[in-house]
Amino acid sequence: MKEKKRYSYEHPRPSLATDCVIFGFDGGTLKLLLTEREKEPFKNKWALPGGFVQMDETTEACAERILKEKTGIKNVFVEQLFTFSDIDRDPRERVISVSYFALVNKHQFELSAGRDTLKAEWFEIADLPKLAFDHSKMVKTAIERLKGKVSYQPIGFELLAEKFTLTQLQGVYEAILEKQIDKRNFRKKILSIGVLRALDEKEKNVARKAAQYFSFDKKAYKELTQKGIYFEI
Amino acid sequence: MKEKKRYSYEHPRPSLATDCVIFGFDGGTLKLLLTEREKEPFKNKWALPGGFVQMDETTEACAERILKEKTGIKNVFVEQLFTFSDIDRDPRERVISVSYFALVNKHQFELSAGRDTLKAEWFEIADLPKLAFDHSKMVKTAIERLKGKVSYQPIGFELLAEKFTLTQLQGVYEAILEKQIDKRNFRKKILSIGVLRALDEKEKNVARKAAQYFSFDKKAYKELTQKGIYFEI
DNA sequence: ATCACAAAGTGTATTTTTTACACTTATTAT
DNA sequence: ATAATAAGTGTAAAAAATACACTTTGTGAT
Q1: Which helix (H) or strand (E) holds A137?
Q2: Which of A49, A192, B34, B176 has its CA 20 to 30 A from that of B198?
């Protein structure tokens, strides 16, 4: 059934893939999106969604394509994480993987399993199954990066809806940093950065004082980073 | 003269390379190590030392091999920087490059040009020639990373000899961060981290008060990072 | 309509960290 | 002996981080 192989080179080449570490947030805890593999190797095991880089796409484009193809997620925060190149990281042959990490508002997307994928499911970060390939290492690297990054770049928003309350945002920071944060100090600090805009809207149908909605002011943030200003939480 | 191509695959594959951004320090300013290319493309142009990843080496190992082969440098601080995958970044064919950055005590090594390389030379960061491929982009990325990193990880040492004075170390920080630092505040801070060990040795033959030598205490640093402690300059 | 409940929202005092700043000391060359 | 040079050192003021508790507001139950 297989056709003759067709692409030949003077030197042997590793195969090149990308894998995506996708974080979501569920009000209380951080979640990770995994897919169940349809084929060998690691058939029926959980893995990060990944795939091979095409000749006409950058690795960034590849990561975004895979995100969409294998999980249905698109237009989210994606950033290059690390390139993993251990010689035996794939049992089939030499595959080098450029990993990416994504931050997703998990309620925005209906998960849809795609090509080579049986299903896509959210898992608790604290309770992950054993993963295929070296994907556990990738996840560990991604969590470290996320922790480091969240403290000096306002990316917490990316895990929430367009509009959110400060308490929700604080929850994101607490989940990522794995520590309690003082409410008053958090609000003082996050508002002082100047990238949050209070909306003319409050929560509805809650059996308590309704919280104010905020949104992320991308323009203000761009101006800040261009001036080279950092903040710290 | 060329033999028949020998390695064939079912799907086309990009070629995979690494390139090294190598920083040195010369008492006053940051330097970058460039090599002059012996062959096309970009023959006789300055470029970062780079080369193709072999099937039996990780990209880290590849970067270290290239460093040694093309410049004579070995056993230095090397860290993965970023993977560049623009489709036309190499005029010959699709090549994806995993870049690394290295910090070197430039006086420790006799530069030696190697394979495919006419010469290796240190350049002022502020006065670089036009570089081959997308190497200017790599350098820009590396400088940003270095600036960010130096403030929360003690890597300034890597640009100096085994033993160094606090004034030399301050010079490294000033060169990287491109700003003047107050001498007393710098000393207070850098010593408070607890990774510098005062040696029983001073400068000799200087027409002024001789400065105390210090060395970097790797053991103390390891303990600190394991406890997850960061510092900031 | 009143009350109980729940989370939103808010200010200040204390501690810690960062910053700004100038003179004395040690060594060599003249 | 003296001049020249960079090393080395402490303190006060300002800014930032931290610790901490009560009032407000909207809903649901009675």
Answers
A1: helix A135-150
A2: B176
Q: Which nucleotide is nearest to A184 (CA to C1')?
A: C10
pLDDT in tens, A87-135: 999 999 999 999 999 999 999 999 887 788 889 999 999 999 999 999 9
Residue with tokens 């323009």: A219
* Subunit contact B16:A11, Cβ cutoff 8 A: no
B225 touches chain A (CB under 8 A): no
| Whether pLDDT at B224 is above 70 | yes
Q: Which two tokens stand for residue B197?
A: 């060990």
Q: Which nucleotide is nearest to B233 (CA to C1')?
A: C18
Closest CA to A131 of A41, A26, A30, A25: A41
Say whether the peptide bond before residue A129 is cis (omega within 30 degrees of 0).
no
Q: CB-based contact (8 Å) between B88 and chain A?
A: no
Q: Which of A153, A155, A187, A154 minimizes the C-alpha distance to A170?
A: A187
Nucleotides of D under 7 A from a protein CB: 4-11, 17-21, 24-28
Amino acid B4: pLDDT: 67
Rounded distance, CA B98 to CA A97, Å? 11
Measured CA to CA in angstroms, residue A185 lies from A22, A157, A195, A196 at distances of 29, 18, 17, 16
Distance of C1' in D21 from CA in B192, Å: 36
User: Which tens digit of pLDDT belongs to each residue from A51-76?
Assistant: 999 999 999 999 999 999 999 999 99
pTM > 0.90: yes
pLDDT tens-digit readout, B154-206: 999 999 999 999 999 999 999 999 999 999 999 999 999 999 999 999 999 99
Q: Which residues on chain A are in Cβ contact (under 8 Å) with B153?
A: none
Q: What percent of chain A is modeled with pLDDT above 70?
A: 98
